[in-house]
Specification:
The protein is an all-alpha fold. Helices cover 72% and strands 1% of the residues. The protein has a two-stranded antiparallel sheet.
């Protein structure tokens, strides 16, 4: 079991962590990123900017592009390449959201109807493909083979993660190891690439590039594990989607893996009926939440998230103190303590 650690040493414990420090630090650059995103969403095919604009206008934390900008700041970069690369990362992320919602048959995203609900699956998939294509055009514009290698690899690994998740879907025998491989690929890889880009554009030494790669990877794992918990515990208004979506879709996440492994035969029959066969009745979600609490599955998933968050914080030890480092460290704290 992962060690519980103090993630908040040196921070004012009376203030709830947020992304405010990071947002303020990169505000000017993020405005340039948003403008570039809007410019590159333009198309003579009216449906493309309409549909893409729907999901982008819905908000979101913009955490991944902000990680590119924050990492570049941490490395002392004073050029302009990070703007295009942050936009590129945002396009990759948005494309995966459009595809995810189709695969998961989701109805809500950030409190609004998903694009596939409004325009249908075909349009969502094709506009997602358009955004992927735009991201590669931005990579080419940057002109760096190193950048192209990092982001093309990340794009391929993300899709591999999506396919791996399909193979584990509705399979209650999925191991914790197999699940961690899924989220490393599906979620953490883009976090890792985003942070690594900050060192690459600044031409920093390998040790700093490796440190930021590790920071992003472990932050991404922690972020996804918290998402797994929130799906069973967050207020729906804060979450921006229906609580229990993972359960209704038969998605196997770490809390389920832990509860299934620790449960008795009768409980395992329940999980198999509900998640493998999707035979769900009124009250089943409440029973599932009760079982997750009974076996400490939500609490232990949070313990693991804190462990990976500690690894992320440790990765930044080689960098000197400063505003950029403080902002990135608080982003780790936010990722653990957030309610959405």
């Amino acid at each position: 079991m992962a060690l519980v650690v103090d993630l908040h040493a040196g921070r004012d414990k009376g203030r709830r962590p947020s992304l405010d420090l990071l947002t303020a630090l990169v505000a000017d650059d993020l405005a340039r990123v948003n403008a570039l995103v809007l410019k590159n969403m333009e198309s003579q095919v009216a449906l493309i900017p309409e549909l893409a604009g729907h999901i982008i206008a819905a908000g979101g934390k913009r955490l991944r592009p902000m990680l590119v900008l924050g990492a570049a700041g941490l490395c002392g970069y004073d050029g302009g390449r990070h703007i295009g690369l942050a936009a590129c990362v945002e396009f990759i992320h948005t494309a995966t959201l459009l595809h995810d919602d189709v695969v998961d048959e989701s109805d809500l995203r950030r409190g609004l109807a998903t694009a596939n609900t409004v325009w249908g699956n075909k349009a969502s998939v094709l506009v997602g493909d358009f955004l992927f294509s735009r991201s590669f055009q931005l990579m080419v514009t940057d002109g760096s083979i190193d950048v192209l290698a990092i982001l093309s690899d990340a794009s391929a690994v993300i899709v591999e993660g999506e396919v791996m998740q399909l193979t584990t879907a509705n399979d209650t025998e999925t191991s914790e190891t197999a699940y961690l491989e899924v989220i490393k690929s599906k979620t953490a890889k883009l976090f890792s690439a985003a942070c690594r880009l900050g060192a690459v554009v600044a031409s920093r030494p390998a040790i700093e590039e490796e440190a930021l790669t590790s920071f992003g990877l472990n932050l991404g794992i922690a972020f996804q594990l918290v998402d797994d918990v929130l799906d069973y515990s967050a207020p729906e208004a804060a979450l921006g989607k229906a609580v229990g979506d993972d359960f209704r879709g038969g998605k196997i996440t770490l809390p389920i893996i832990l509860a299934f492994r620790r449960g008795n035969d009768r409980e395992r029959v329940f999980w198999r009926h509900a998640l493998e066969e999707l035979e769900q009745e009124d009250g089943d979600l409440e029973r599932a939440v009760a079982l997750l609490h009974k076996h400490g599955a939500l609490a232990d998933t949070m313990e693991r998230a804190r462990h990976y968050a500690k690894l992320a914080r440790d990765a930044l030890d080689i960098f000197p103190a400063g505003d950029a480092k403080a902002a990135l460290l608080e982003a780790v704290d936010f990722s653990i303590e957030r309610s959405h």
